[in-house]
Amino acid sequence: MERAREHGDTGQRPPESGTDLELLVHGVGGTTPEEMLGDPRTVRVSGDETAAVHRREADAGADAERNPRDRGGPVPEAYVWCNLTSGNAARALWLLLLPFMVVNLAHWMRPTTTGRPRTVRLYGLIVRLLGLTLTVLLVAAACEVALDLGAWQCAGTRACAERHSWLGFLSPAVSDQGWWSEPGRRLAVASLVPTALTGLLWYLSHRTWSAYESQQPISRPAEPDEEPHRTALDSPGFWYGRRLVARLRAAHTAAGFLTVAAAPATAARYDSRHGSVELEVLGRLLCATLLVGGLVVVGVVCRRGRTENRLDRTLDRALVRRLPAGALVLLSVTAVYAGWSRPGWRSADRLPGDTTFGALALAQGVLVVALGVVAHVLHRTHPDTRTAMRGLAGPAVAMLACALGGVMSGGVAQRVADWLDGTRHIMAGPPVLLTWQASTIPPLLLVLLVVVGRLARRTAVLRRAGTAAVELAHQGEPEDEARTRRIAGTRAMAALTDRAPLVVAVMSASTLLLGALALVGAFAGHDTPEGAARGSHAFVRGAAETAQALGSWLIGIGFLLFVTWGRRAYKDASARRTIGILWDVGTFWPRAAHPFAPPCYAERAVPDLSWRMATWTEATGGRLVLSGHSQGSVLAAAAAWQLEPSVRRRVALLTYGSPLERLYGRWFPAYFGPAALSSLHREVACWRNLYRLTDPIGGPIRLPGDCGPQVDRAPLRDPLAYGRTAEHPLPAPILGHGDYQADPAFAEERERLLSRLRPGLPGPRPAGPGTEAGSAGQGSSGKSSG
């Protein structure tokens, strides 16, 4: 009772109905309610076709039963949310938004810290600016393909235009000086392609914004700020990013339109030398307006970040509407200006794409380095040995996002150039910088090969050590060498997850170094690495030629793989589910850095769960076990943080195969670090966590101090039986990350949690010192709802 009074619990509760409820939340990949509930007859209790709560048909009216304890267990409910990420076939196209999703992840990888609010805001600002550069890069790549390669180079070359008859009306040589054949008019027509792409991104972002970010979380009264170790995940406005995403969407859409307008504005270069005075003045005025528009966009991105401490329902309607509209009007004026008749203007060489892509690459490199400095400062103020890459995970992931954007932009430009030109070399081709960047892919793959070799060696060592551990654990049983090696190998492969920071660190550092070398080589006056290696040793020349040829081929293949995988997922439900698993992991976080990223499903799922738990406990006064597997355990924890303290202390948490500490705690320490998980452990009624050594995703919670043994049960046996036994006459499978409910420990721990929620009843006695429950289960019973 003293603990309840400390937290402000008055002891007034709804009448006890005796109902036990287990709210099941599935993990990545999704499933069906029939599979979750183990019954082919299920009914939807609440929700829609996108996400809903289901029960068995026989349990539809279980809340009204007088003695539901006679059922022999809690009433199971299944929350199915897989359609939020992989239900619609059109969502396969989200694969092309992968760089945007990755840079958005970097925003949430901020190291944990105490104080330094300005440094924290600076971290978010830099990531938002990186997201803006990726939008400009994508639109610039579309401009390179449509305006430079298509309208400027191919249509301006007779041999290329004759090979592609659909460009004939734009070619001055083929169409006999038709109205559309002037360079400025060609650029104006071709600008419709990147304009349509920008409009499509705006439309997709707006549609998903209406469906996801506009879902209001459960309202609850303000909580006292003196509660120690609070986390941002319990803030009222954390899962409601409606205002920020709308602002960022307006800014990024305007940036896309301004990027498109910059290409036709190249007519000002001709007018400054050969045009009339009126056109020269108009061109200078348009260029100045484009510059001012760009500064306004940057200012909007820099001005405001997320609002989490309160539920911000306002919307900057004037900004959201006028900024993209103004940029579109400016684009239209620029297209009309470029289409003005200039009889002496001829297209030659290529548009100034090297300057654009070079400036973007330089800006991204500087921003990534600056982000690394800020992350290091934050981590140094509150160091944590479990944090991935010593706090530099965010900058490393941001660097990989820029690399993905470079591969996609360079790949599409290279493939289109090869398609238009073939082997004739009648076109100037894509910008020089893209050729240099493509040449860095082979050495980057060599670095990756070295890392993979090191991981393979590490796995072999762990497998040999694990073989001895498996033999020791099964002494006295008939020996099976193949079975032992299989178990040890599974454990060794599962341990590779903990080596992921090494792979990300090496790849991001190599990408930054090779990208800097490509930037220097491109602007040193060398068109290709092969040209830069002339006069060098034969080995150096051969390596440069190989890197250039192989890189050009690989970057095109990489883009084709993106397109092919997306097309296959569009038609194939199984492939779409595989991509859905990627989104399950990557789109848990709100769109704080990039509005064109795939939407955050948690902004729908977390309010769903918190509303269901709050309304059910208020209506029945029953006991509730929130049972989450894998990514479902992350959703469960986030939903528990959103409850009122009085409701939170009436909920037990059962997690299994959970990445809460192993992945989220290490990669997102500011939100799932030791302090945050410890606060959750103190605030819920009780918490137990199950994991296996063969699980590559789930792991222990590792709470500091005396909290750890109370949450984590000893690792479950996997397989359940080493050889054939009376209970397992057939060989038991190695379960790894799945089917935790098949283990008897699952039902045992669930009953233990329910017993601690029953007022006045002692918890079950430990099974004995020789069992896995042991004192760990007794430690869990030290917490109750008051």
UniProtKB/TrEMBL annotation:
Keywords: Membrane, Transmembrane, Transmembrane helix. It comes from the Bacteria. Residues 1-71, 746-786 are annotated as: Disordered. Residues 1-10, 51-71 have a biased composition (Basic and acidic residues). The keyword ATP-binding does not apply. Residues 776-786 have a biased composition (Gly residues). The keyword Transmembrane applies. Coiled coil: none annotated. The chain crosses the membrane at residues 92-110, 122-142, 250-270, 282-302, 323-340, 360-379, 391-413, 433-456, 502-526, 546-566. This is Integral membrane protein.
